[in-house]
Amino acid sequence: MATKITRQILEAYLNCKTKAHLKLAGQQGIVSDYEALLVANRQAVRRQAIEKILARNPETEVARDISLTAAALGKGPSFVLNATLEDDLLSLSFDGLKRVDGPSKLGDFQYVPMLFHEGQKVGKKQRLLLEIYGLLLSRLQGQMPSSGILWHGKECRTTKVRLNGDLRKTERLLREVKEMVNAQSPPKLMLNEHCQVCEFRQRCNNQAVQEDNISLLRGMGEKEIKRYARKGIFSVTQLAHTFRPRRKGKKQLQTTHKRHHALQALAIRDKKIYIFGTPELKASPVRIYLDMEGDPDEGYVYLIGMIVAQGDSETTHSFWADDKEQEYRIFEEFLAEVGKFENFQVFCYGGYERAFLMRMRKQAKRKGPVDKVLKALVNTLSLIYSHIYFPTYSNGLKDIGGRLGCSWTEPDASGIQSVVWRKKWETTTGEEWKRRLTTYNFEDCAALRKVTEFVYATWDRGNGTTESSSDCRNSNPVERVQNAAELPGAGAWAQGNFAHPDYEYLNRCAYFDYQRQRVYARTSSTLRKSRRKEQQSKNRMLRVSNHIEVRTSKCPCCGSTELQHRERKKQAKRAYDLVITTGSLKRKVIECRAPLHICVHCGNKFMPERYQRLDRHYHGVKSWAMYHHVAHRDSFGTLEEMAKELFGLRIYKPEFKMFKSLMARYYETTYRKLLKKILSGHLLHIDETEVKLQTGKGYVWVFATLEEVVFMYRPTREGNFLQELLRDFHGVLVSDFYSAYDSINCPQQKCLIHLIRDMNQELLNNPYDEELQSITRPFGALLRAVVETVDKHGLKRRYLQKHKQDVEDFFQGVSVKTFHSEVTELLRNRLTKNRDKLFTFIDHDGIPWNNNNAENAIKRFAYYRENAGSRLTEAGLTDFLVLLSICQTCRYKGISFLRFLLSRERDLDSFSDRKRPRRCPPALQIYPKGFTPPNFRKRHDQKLPRQLDKPENEVQDTQ
């Protein structure tokens, strides 16, 4: 193995560890045309950059081809070109150095690294390489440069790149490369995107196929591969055995499927094409298959090819651009050709074509034709990604098209190779390269057509039609994977899909309720009697327990007090209430009557307004219903059955919804007082959780103390509203590690149980990482000692201060250590970042070390969310959160939520659980003036209120 680390090895390591290992071993592969093109472009950039530097500076100010030492840099040349840094393991060639002002060991100046790069954009790898050069340079001049200079692109532009001041990541990377020099075994092979241009691509691919390496599956990232490795899954065959179709949850809103890599592995193992779900496509008489070729460096499209299939006829079109100036011309020619058709579908493979059309739309004079194409554009790759699994390692057009029988004239045809062909055409303008490009473009269009027709055939078979592509099926067995809704038992409670209308009719006639009411009732006298009792059990049949007469003393039109009453034309309404005591629960039926009023002065005939705005259900009924709904999570359907069975009252689901809205408005004052008290305290627990509504996704936030709780709905998880809400809060904020809380200006305590759980998971994932143990073990011992003090003396500052020095010693030890393990380094960064927020509680009285008050409150909402599914609306959720805030506060205070509701109090602090609930007097409860409540069902002869109000003296009890 080689003993020197060069720039080629560093660049290879940034792309692939296996490539760096092979380079260190002195092995050489077959350099691809694209990689050779990159090398040539870099040399061109190097020549231009050196020419520009020499043209702007005298030769005496430019040092070239020197050995990089502190003495050589101390001479102070303005530029240093092609310098070499040598030591026992390194032999790095610096493209260049530039002198800038700033103190260093060299004097009042220092140097920043320069890099020559062939690409147009500054990438992550170039930034890392500059940071490595800056780190090595800092050892000579005693100062880490704050920036680097990148010469790049065809025009040889210069870009100033800011370097990261935290050198730990760069030092770890350089240390790993040095350790690879003396490594006894090669690194674990892991294929990535660089493999398509790597000189060792064939060697690594053969090794991966021989090992059945899981990284053969394209689309799987390094983190996901490592996650499978922790489970003992290293091969494609092992992954294939893990696939199980999942049942669709009741909360699932999306109709698309994610990509199941296990099913992809199963298709490769079984050599079958699996269909998961049903792709949906629109039928169209004209199908256009579109493919484009572009220059990634210049950022423009130079070739548009398409195949137009209309019935049995087929036409091909190709639009070529010599340079970037002609791009808009070929775009207009493409639009003109497509504009000849009215009803058409345009198919592409990937998002490149859509991105091009969106970019050209900004330049187009007429937006309509472009919008029409965009509306008809279908990405075939997205359909395959969601529904179809070919026995190939990737979803590339070459792999899938080749599986379906497509072929390409050039054996090395690919998107990367087309870039090389275009560069050669630009250099020679030879017709051979243009012919290769147009042929390759048409073959891509033909492959796209083949793949799309296969998807159409799959869709047609799924819809029961007879069209199919037999040539595809013969060589590629197709099997449909059971959808989650089609699994045995998964749709036990759902209505199935029937192929014939007669079967659907027969299924409806077989339902239990239908047969009892329409069939069995014709022959069973018992069922007929039960139906008659059901119809007769109306609220108007209940015995009246209280009588109330409503009169008014003034005319609403003229204000006159001279009124006459028509006693014979009295009208009657009924209201219902529940009287709940410690030993009983009793129904009350209140009948309210009002005579017709006639004004002697103006002749106006009217009924009293109080009578017209009569509340049908009193506060006792509403309190009982909301107590069960909020505290015990009973649904409105359950409450409807309970009211009918226990009290003989017919209360329907829409009425219970109205109860929730009314009670939320009634206790809105209580809600605001709770929020104000929480924000004025010395302690605040905060947490958030996701909730799915009918219209999409939202978030519920909880603010809690030791005695109060307030829930709040927000449409997003963004924490900007916290700045305004907590601007006057000066206590300690206890929260998890969500970054939105970091911007709040107050002392903060991070939940340590969250941190402990994360540490524990990392320990389970990396059981043999000794460096990770070196941090987690002392932290656990430290926190245990602190918690033991809390358990013995409580959350008191005078007892917790003795651990202050131990905390400082722990963080001091962690900050100076250097770790090789990436997991340990990430944990150390997390600890040091939150150093001032992990042990805040030892400097205060009464501040807990975890966020259990907020988490316990959020759990109560999570139970309700689980039962509600995705049926929630924003208005209904907001009303429920008001009542849940009061319920949870009563629970924290040790107060009966039901007794508080029955008392009709609005101040929780003034309410005492020892007080007997005040009985609701047999007087009128009404809704506000000017409001006409909706009729939920025709059978309701009364109107529902919008809010509660106290009875007034105008109501007379005539019991």
Total helical segments: 36
CATH topology of the domain at 286-480: Nucleotidyltransferase, domain 5
CATH-level-4 superfamily name of the domain at 286-480: Ribonuclease H-like superfamily/Ribonuclease H
What is the CA–CA distance across the termini? Answer: 106 Å
- For the largest beta sheet, what order do the strands appear in spatially? 1-2-3-4-5-6
Beta-strand share of residues: 15-25%
Shape: globular
**pLDDT < 50 stretches:** 249-255, 462-474, 483-492, 934-959
Q: How many individual β-strands?
A: 24
Q: What's the architecture of the domain at 286-480, going by CATH?
A: 2-Layer Sandwich
Mean pLDDT over the full residue set: 84
Helix content: 40-55%
The biggest beta sheet, please?
6 strands, mixed
